[in-house]
Amino acid sequence: MAAALEETPVSYEDLAAIERDFDNVETEIIRKQTELTTPLYASRQKTLSTIPNFWPLVLEQAPPDIDQYIQPSDSALLLSSLTSFSVSRFEAPTEPRSISLRFEFSDNEYFEDAVLEKRFWYRRAGDGWQGLVSEPVGIKWREGRDLCGGLLGLVERAYASCPSASAANKKEERKVTAEQKELAKTIENTGMGGLSFFAFFGFIGRRISAEENAVAVQEAGKGGVRAAEDGDEGEDMDDLELDMSLEIFPDGEELALAFADDLWPGAIKYFTQAQEQDALSDADFEDSDAEIEIDDLDQQEDGADDDADARPTKKQRSS
After folding, report:
1. How far is it, in rounded angstroms, from Cα 152 to Cα 149?
2. Which positions ≥6 away from 60 have C-beta within 8 Å?
3. Which of 15, 67, 203, 227 could hold 249 in an S-S bridge, CB 3.0 to 4.6 Å?
4. How far is CA 245 from CA 151, 217, 241, in A?
5. Would the pLDDT of 122 be above 70?
6. What is the pLDDT of residue 162?
7. 3-state SS, one letter per residue, for 277-293
8. pLDDT band at residue 293, thresholds of 50, 70 and 90?
9. pLDDT at 117
10. Helix intervals (H) in the chain
11. What is the reported pLDDT for 25?
């Protein structure tokens, strides 16, 4: 049985301090890595831009953490129209864990946008939670081609109807708006299974403002978490439940990290796998053709033998 912490000279504050030290080191590693690799990625991107269909081929070999969210209709669009993809850490000097995903498209039958860029801010909440949050990104769908069935537009309107509250007046701001009610009802009446990959652009996560983040970071630096006032904890839970009930892509943070930490740095690896897969497919096709040709020859030979057996033999001339 584990000993109670109260029976040791170690406090929870001591453990929290150790965790903060590791967190600070990890953040500094990401910051330094970003500084060193940014020019390399820029050079790589210049080279990759000369390879036709590079990013569609990479997506064809995407890891399960990404591929599971791409529906057949999404695949048709991405494979035919995606021209470029990139990841940047736009807050690298201060918070290198914030990321931006940029997708570039050629003209297509689904939407008018040439670029879809989604930013994720790394934020900390007063209760100690930390992670990525975002804002919905609108897509200008062509008539009758909305792969999200109108959900993304509803998310935009609901988000705009309730601006992020500051740390000081957050409680007064969290009233459910008519737009949020409409979104919640639509989500309730819509089967969320098999939702388009493009619903990812509607991911929001927790509603944590820059001001609330700054206060939480300051508190964490002092070695603590903001103490909850009477009623705060229940209201925070209500806010969190509301946020989650309005979320059309709950796994948005995980998918963003899969793009940033796996697909982006491993792009050449996935492209090479796609080439090898194509080569194997071609080889299998050629082998199949060869087998068919051999079978045809065998059948022809068998037929010739049968004809020879059936053909009457000439009588031998008597001497």
Report:
1. 8
2. 79, 274, 277
3. 203
4. 14, 27, 6
5. yes
6. 84
7. HHHHHHHHHHHHHHHHH
8. low
9. 99
10. 12-48, 54-60, 64-67, 72-81, 151-161, 170-173, 178-189, 210-221, 232-245, 252-258, 267-310
11. 96
Indicate the SS3 state at residue 107: coil
Contact 192, 202 (CB under 8 A): no
Task: Determine contact, residues 123/91, Cβ cutoff 8 Å.
Answer: no
Superfamily of domain 10-264: Nucleosome assembly protein (3.30.1120.90)
Listed in sequence order, the residues at least 6 apart from 201 whose beta carbon sits closer than 8 Å to its beta carbon are 116, 118, 136, 137, 138, 139, 152
| Strand partners of residue 134 | 120
DSSP code, position 200: G
Confidence band of 226 (pLDDT split at 50, 70, 90)? low
User: Could you tell me the two tokens for 97?
Assistant: 């864990």
Neighbours of 45 (CB within 10 A): 13
The predicted structure's pLDDT at residue 235: 57
Amino acid at 261: D
Measured CA to CA, the distance from residue 286 to residue 90 in angstroms comes to 48
Distance CA 86, CA 84 (A): 7
- Interatomic CA distance for residues 245 and 187, integer angstroms: 8
pLDDT band at 312 (very low <50, low <70, confident <90, very high): very low
How does pLDDT run across 278-290, given as a tens digit for each residue?
777 665 555 555 5
Give the span between the Cα atoms of 26 and 9, in whole angstroms.
27
Dist. CA 55–CA 312, nearest whole Å: 67
* Widest distance between CA atoms in the chain: 128
Q: What is the pTM of this model?
A: 0.82
